[in-house]
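notes to self, project folder thing:

trying the whole complex as one job this time. last attempt i did each chain seperately and stitching them together was a nightmare. three parts in total, labels are on each line so i dont mix them up again. if this works i'll redo the older ones the same way
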Amino acid sequence: MSTDAITLPRAEAAARPFVDRLHEWVTTVDHKRLGILYITYALVFLVIGGIEAGIMRIQLIRPHNDFVSPQVFNRMFTMHGTTMIFFVVMPLVFGFANYLMPLMIGARDMAFPRLNAFSFWLTAFGGLLLYFSLVGANGLYGAGNAPDVGWFAYAPLTSRTFSVGHSTDFWTLSLLVSGFGSIGTAINIVATVLCMRCPGMTLAKMPLFAWLNIVMAGLVILAVSPLTAAQIMLLIDRYLGGHFFDTQAGGSAVIWMHFFWIFGHPEVYVLVLPAFAFASEIIPVFSRKPIFGYPVMVAATVAIGFISMSVWAHHMFTVGMSANATTFFVASTMAIAVPTGIKIFNWLATMWGGKIEFKTPMLFCIGFLFQFLVAGLTGIMLGCAPFNWQLGNSYFVVAHFHYVIVGGILFATFGAFYYWFPKVSGKMYNETLGRLHFWLFLIGFHLTFDFMHVPGLLGMPRRIYTYEPGRGWDVWNLIVTVGVFFQALGIVIFIANLIWSYFRGKAAGHDPWDAWTLEWSTTSPPPAYNFASMPVVRSRRPLWDLKHPNDPDWKYE
Amino acid sequence: MRSRSSINWRGLASQVLVCFGAAPAAFADPAPRLSPTSIFAPASTPADSIFGLSLFVLAVTGAIFVVVFTLLAYSVVKFRKNAGDDGREPPQVYGSNQVELAWTVIPVLIVLALFMATGRVIASIQKASTPSNAITVITIGHQFWWEYRYPGLGVVTANELHVPVSNLERPTPTFIQLLSADTDHSFWVPRLAGKTDLIPNHPNHMWIDPHETGVYLGQCAQYCGTQHAKMLLRVYVQSRDEFDRWVQEQRQPASVNATTSQGQRIFETTACINCHTVAGTAADGLFGPDLTHLMSRDTIAAGAAPNTRENLRLWIQNPAAIKPVSLMPAMQLSDPDMDALTDYLETLR
Amino acid sequence: MNVPSIAIDEQRIEWERPARGRVGMFGFIAAEAAIFSIFVVAYLFYIGKSLTGPTPKDVLRVPIFYTICLLSSSLTIHLAAKLLRSGSVLIFGVLWLVTIALGATFLYGTATEWQRLIYHDGLTISTNLFGTTYYSLVGLHGFHVVVGLLSLSIVMVITLLGNMRAEYGERVEVLSLYWHFVDVVWIVVFTVVYVIGR
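result (full assembly):
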């Protein structure tokens, strides 16, 4: 048998001392362990970021509330945004890519295992550095010295004049460090996909997961670097007397915005493309059909990658750009809606005519589809510049991007957790708890983020620690806050399910979902070497070919 | 209300809305009960143009939503696995070029229509020329208050902007130049116009032509520091006569009153004059708001508190009670001095 | 349930994939190019916008000699890598040393230029926009030259210890890609700073 695993008897495995096992994890270069480290790290920060959100929502439950001071609130929204993007979603994305990519392309590990480990520890250190700001370094404000300049840290608010102390430096340095980690992982992903595919797996035969992740990695390489450059410039301004963003010396505050958003917009595609990858693997399996329109999905992915580098100034419509520049960015923003919409239609067509099974992974992916549709449509609204002049920087924007990140990305990621948990742990999760998680989180998500659009439409700007009564915002803020508790409960059940199932779940076997990609051909969990011998493939669904020898995919592709 | 642009956006949009019954029509309320800062209750041409465009965009995206949502919901219900399923796989369909073409071409057309509609409105708002009878105001954003200068009228004030009403027969728009003295801010009064940022070393401009008198509310919409939340906006739209009268009053220097000379002396010998100007006296500081006509304003601290004697006294004695971490220092005066000072300030009408 | 076996095809199929060292280096170069692009954009944007102080025309002198040194080092490193592949480790060592010397000369030129600018012309990173963007861009490039020279020196040490072989030709070539990148960046920086900006 080519994929037999050689496993240690359980008794021997348990006898090793804790320090030895810890050492193994800390020094590992195995992509599967690094994947688990990334994901566990992200889950811890998900809880922390959620607490920060909870604090903000309690403060905003009614006007003129005094649950926290303005200083603390401003630190909360800065830390919440920075944490969620850099230390939750990006590690989740890298964690799943790390774990699954080599398995799905029939490789034994990533292209550069040591770089892989180094990149993880850089990212991890960045997060710890950011949170050290809460307790370290003296500042002039109370409540520690966490950054309070917003996650996009506009100049000149970040200059020494307006940001006294070291809070901005913690933001800058922690993201610089984790940025290098991100670039390292991205280089690794590109090299792995291009150089480590098993025989027969041409680029046109690899899973969509691999396509979406390689485009994501390309975006990281091209987009995180501008942020790195801008942060170096900021440090030069703050510590070497530079004038990059010093408006008193003729410098430009707007150029920081350009540099930041040249990073910031592709960054959100970095976050969402892997979510598309999860949906593109899960929806076919639970609809019992191949993904509809594979070549078009690849083309749309590449198109999204390219166009995403040209839309950045739609975050700057209110800054006072020329009418021509504004019009250009409206055009490019509208353009990116086309390939994105095509993807939604292809997922719909995959389900069409299928036999859908509503297991937990599929429930989350269906939620993803509906919610990503709405998110995309509010994005189109925001892309119409004059409409943006009203909606920009308001709670409508906050609702829009949370719809994308929570309603789209997080839902798809929950789907991925449940789908691949059996592979990673060897156990099945509890289906009842999974559904409970889904419904609680769905209710909470919609309570919070559907109604959050309304204050934006009624004139409520973002990043305010309190608001005036009599503006018509009160009841909506109350509903938004209530939704938070449902979501928190859902997360608690989710984590409890993961932990309980890891120890007490039923054995999953190697292929509990009757799926078709290579990771399901090896044991659960896979052995350290992934496959006993290199697989050779002839189509996009190698396991379908094995299970249906009279009707293999390679006859039709 | 007749729209000024050549395409009747309102008419087109309301036709489409009738077909789709979109909720925002409920917000399109000329006398807003829902909110004084609703973007769906425009009272000035830029806000009008945006409102018209927004109805069109909402109608189009609403239609897309209904169609795709229905298809998704239908597929989830119709193609679910039945209880008595035979376990065979359904027909494996790999794709269809015609279908892909269809759902590429149609979105491209929709996106083109949206783009062209948007382009028109951008041009109409941003490329508007300044008529000769326009009022010009220079707005300078500070942490955390608004400075207003009317160069043509010789008026300097703070936090509460007065403009004349502009009707279609005799339009008198107000053109606002937007500058910043420190960090980024944004001027957002939703019923009058979309927001435009105030960025140091990057002058911007916008215009409004409010059609109805009244007070319009808004606030700073670009995070500018700790008290960003309390940098509120009040725009007083007045009839032409009232506006002219207001201008005349604002141009007068402060009237000197013998009974409050002690308060004035305290004002001028404490640090007050380093930051504040009172026209006609020795006070000519520029860091804080001009106080010459302080009592003509309804609020203090950029809208953070109503302008009453108690609040005024509290603001000087302990600004943190009203707006912590604003740049107004606590003046550490004795009670009798505080009373005298407040008496003096109350004469600055 | 048995784990299904994926068949191993008896006829070995043709299976070509690019070398991962090269792909990794190109990925790294892409990231670095993106970082440099932002500094170049900032430099171009701020040309002529300084409010005070010395202007490029006043103080910049075109470093032709040092530029020739750096660009020639691309030629010598290319030859060195080629010759290593064909087995001539000794000539490889000599050419490698010449490359390092040329790179070091270039750095010396930058150092003397900076010394003159700071002490004679009074231009520092905090003087004005020109100072900030000039030292940042040229300095970032210089930093990459330093890192390159360190890497080249490590290879030099390996060669001097007698451990260099023709089989390492691929790795040496991948490293030389980095060095070529540093030279290409210099061409861009040179054009932007000494031609366009002056």
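what i see at first glance: The mean pLDDT of chain A is 94.
need to look closer tmrw
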